[in-house]
Task: inverse folding
């Protein structure tokens, strides 16, 4: 029964995440950007733009210019989350490649960094008056969700071990449509429930910023407006009235 | 002139000083609403339509399908707070709705309510709200407290540009009949007469002739300001403020002297006698396009080979970033030059070629700094290299002036502050907002005044010049402490007097 519920939950969550997120990306991609609005100074080549986006995604360049506290908490959280996610790949592949085995000890450290980053970001929502003013319940809930995932995960590592072999069997089974029993460990079930909720919420929440950053015209446009004429399809239709 | 003798006070001025939050501090700051005539001249309904709520949501939906910026920016904000202390209107007023994210949220909460699942199902959780009259009034109030300077977009990790949001907000307001008088009246004048001022061709001609006489009386050189000359090489498009306002007009004299020294064939057009394009301020692609097409037509009618723009901030944005889109392609012009060029690019090219001679000592009574106009700094470029918009004007100033000092690094170049009057807010009923919004720039100026004895500030924007000449007295500066860049060029340039032919 438990196994069936969680199997269904993860199938649904995966479909919602993939379809919802793909749909959001499709909307971003299909909406034209009629005017050249890169925040200047901007790169004058596509390579330059790729490098600018890389710096935004890898180092949070603009955030670094803005506020060192948000930058340090935000960057540490995101990078740690990336390491933790990579480490978790071991539950989905068999045998585990050497790279993943190598990441294993860093993943454990990253868990602490991730929770610390989240705590810093959350504290700002209470401590800094300006950030308190702009925070909505959903902003707190999102942090609570991520914090819950991080803490429950760490508890399984450091407090009460769960049967990770069985967990891996469950997920490998899901991927092969051969349902294997899930351990009825409360901490594990909390962890997995929160993850599934996050997956479902993801495409409908501010977490789409992960796609938005790549579609932001102020960041992804090349500064070449004098050399190349940029014309959106809907704007081209307006030109029917032009005599010359 | 404002002088401080106590050196310890120099450290107390902080242009980025954080205000305490004062909710509602600027709730009463509203520009006058456009009347039916002004609305009609831009193609908008004359007064608030009966079904304004329905029409506003419909327009929002349309804009969401037309502008990726709007869609991505409304979806992507994570409320991190990076932008909260970046807006000069927030720093100057402390009104939390002047924090860029809070300004965006005025539109975002309605977007969420009508266009997103989360906002439809759990409005209070995600801060979604119905479009009520109160929200509408907030839109009008606070989208007219954004000068679209893009400072927030520099610091946002996703590049969210509040200018895109306030433009969309104003576009919606215009389409339900609640436009702003200042912008829409001016746009109407450009559509019918050709410039913001409503200056007709004859008046323009006599103004330019009067200026020619003044220059010749002054320096004994017959510098010309040609109007509507067919077959001229260069069309100069400059803000109409250059024809009458101080210190703008001294900049215009500077352009004329540079053209004269270069022996250039140039002309102003009475049909496109305006560089400014207020269509951008109201987010109206169509109005912006119509205004831009006047320039194309003038260039074709006069048969010019190049287009050069005078000193104007947002005009240079529309010119540099949008003109090719709105009114291009300009394949009928000389392909050896970028279309359009900025007068600073033109002048700097001549300086680099050694074609201009200066007597820098003519500006020795001036200790100068430079105000990077927001739209030039963050929405355009000059020259071949990114950042040329910062270097070229400074290079010109350092060529013509011996005493040049920059303001603090976090208040110039890409981090520059708006003058406080940009984005269609340069109207008298917003004077309180304008004065408060100028405070970060004025404080930065005070720091170099104290550290280096700076006496004057140069700018390359008609709005900046007008705004500063109005607000500077409040901060202890003379109103003529603001100068045009080409005014300094004009002071120092050496022109040969004509040889007596008799």
Result:
């Amino acid at each position: 029964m438990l196994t069936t519920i969680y199997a269904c939950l993860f199938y649904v969550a995966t479909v919602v995440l993939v379809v919802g997120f793909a749909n959001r990306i499709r909307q971003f991609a299909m909406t034209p950007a009629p005017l050249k609005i890169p925040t200047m100074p901007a790169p004058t080549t596509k390579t330059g733009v790729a490098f600018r986006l890389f710096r935004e995604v890898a180092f949070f360049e603009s955030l670094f210019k803005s506020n060192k506290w948000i930058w340090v908490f935000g960057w540490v959280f995101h990078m740690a989350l990336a390491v933790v996610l990579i480490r978790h790949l071991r539950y989905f592949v068999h045998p585990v490649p050497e790279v993943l085995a190598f990441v294993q000890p860093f993943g454990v450290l990253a868990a602490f960094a991730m929770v610390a980053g989240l705590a810093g970001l959350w504290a700002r929502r209470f401590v800094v008056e300006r950030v308190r003013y702009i925070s909505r319940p959903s902003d707190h809930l999102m942090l609570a969700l991520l914090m819950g995932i991080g803490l429950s995960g760490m508890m399984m590592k450091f407090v009460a071990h769960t049967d990770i072999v069985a967990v891996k069997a469950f997920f490998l089974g899901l991927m092969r449509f051969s349902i294997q029993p899930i351990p009825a460990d409360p901490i594990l079930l909390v962890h997995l429930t929160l993850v599934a909720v996050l997956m479902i919420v993801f495409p409908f929440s501010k977490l789409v910023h992960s796609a938005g950053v790549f579609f932001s015209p102020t960041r992804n446009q090349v500064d070449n407006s004098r050399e190349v004429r940029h014309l959106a399809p809907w704007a081209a239709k307006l030109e029917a009235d032009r005599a010359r | 002139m404002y002088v401080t003798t106590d050196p310890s006070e120099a450290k107390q001025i902080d242009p980025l000083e954080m205000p305490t939050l004062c909710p509602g501090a600027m709730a009463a700051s509203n520009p006058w609403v456009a009347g039916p005539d002004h609305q009609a001249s831009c193609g908008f309904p004359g007064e608030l339509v009966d079904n304004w709520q329905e029409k506003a949501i419909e327009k929002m939906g349309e804009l969401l399908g037309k502008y990726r910026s709007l869609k991505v920016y409304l979806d992507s904000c994570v409320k991190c707070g990076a932008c909260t202390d970046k807006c000069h209107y927030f720093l100057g007023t402390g009104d939390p709705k002047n924090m860029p994210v809070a300004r965006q949220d005025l539109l975002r909460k309605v977007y969420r309510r009508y266009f997103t699942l989360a906002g439809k199902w759990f409005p209070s959780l995600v801060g979604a709200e119905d479009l009520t009259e109160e929200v509408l009034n907030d839109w009008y109030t606070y989208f007219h407290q954004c000068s679209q300077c893009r400072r927030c977009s520099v610091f946002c990790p996703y590049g969210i540009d509040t200018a895109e949001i306030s433009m969309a907000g104003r576009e919606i307001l215009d389409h339900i009949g609640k436009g702003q008088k200042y912008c829409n009246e001016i746009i109407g004048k450009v559509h019918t007469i050709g410039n913001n001022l409503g200056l007709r061709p004859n008046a323009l001609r006599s103004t330019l002739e009067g200026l020619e006489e003044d220059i010749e009386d002054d320096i004994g050189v017959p510098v010309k300001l040609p109007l509507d000359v067919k077959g001229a090489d260069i069309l100069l498009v400059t803000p109409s403020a250059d024809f009458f306002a101080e210190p703008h007009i001294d900049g215009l004299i500077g352009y004329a002297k540079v053209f004269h020294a270069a022996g250039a064939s140039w002309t102003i057009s009475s049909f496109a006698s305006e560089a400014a394009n207020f269509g951008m301020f109201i987010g109206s692609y169509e109005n912006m396009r119509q205004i831009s097409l006047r320039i194309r037509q003038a260039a074709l009618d006069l048969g010019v080979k190049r287009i050069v723009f005078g000193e104007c901030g947002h005009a240079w944005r529309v010119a540099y970033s949008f003109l090719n889109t709105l009114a291009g392609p300009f394949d009928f012009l000389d392909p050896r030059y970028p279309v359009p060029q900025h007068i600073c690019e033109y002048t700097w090219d001549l300086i680099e070629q050694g074609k201009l001679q200066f007597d820098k000592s003519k500006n020795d009574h001036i200790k100068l700094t430079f105000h990077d106009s927001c739209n030039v700094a963050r929405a355009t470029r000059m020259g071949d290299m990114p950042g040329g918009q910062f270097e070229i004007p400074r290079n010109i100033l350092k060529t013509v002036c011996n005493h040049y000092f920059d303001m603090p690094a976090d208040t110039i170049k890409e981090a520059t502050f708006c003058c406080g009057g940009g984005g269609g807010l340069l109207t008298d009923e917003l004077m309180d907002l304008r004065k408060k919004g100028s405070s970060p720039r004025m404080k930065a100026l005070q720091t170099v005044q104290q550290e280096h004895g700076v006496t004057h500030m140069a700018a390359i924007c008609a709005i900046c010049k007008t705004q500063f000449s109005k607000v500077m007295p409040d901060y202890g500066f003379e109103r003529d402490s603001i100068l045009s860049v080409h005014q300094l060029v004009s002071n120092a340039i050496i022109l040969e007097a004509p040889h007596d032919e008799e």
